[in-house]
Description:
Elements: E1 4-5, H1 7-19, E2 25-33, E3 37-45, E4 53-57, E5 60-64, H2 66-72, E6 76-82, E7 85-91, E8 97-98, E9 105-106
Parallel strand pairs: 1-6, 2-5
Antiparallel strand pairs: 2-3, 4-5, 6-7, 8-9
Amino acid sequence: MAISLTDSAAERVRTYLERRDSALGLRLGVTATGCSGYSYVINYAEEVDETDVVFEDKGVKVFIDPEALQLIDGTEVDFVKSGLNEAFSFRNPNVAGECGCGESFNV
């Protein structure tokens, strides 16, 4: 079981962690929503839950709820800039389908 970060994603997270004294790392999860079933939730972890699964990649700690991990195990998180747009993107090997807008997925 693992979550990985590209160099671009790790650099982006480290930059923001340096600005937030209380942040411990990146919190990654999913929520039931959208037209395909789930969407990714990404935030900064400011505390550790006793049930969190913790990964570290490229010097960044990633905190994940065990239930979410079942859906996103093996995911690579990237940070992409395209023109004026920038966002985290996810390469999840468990995805069976995505909605047309790319905001949600199913497994």
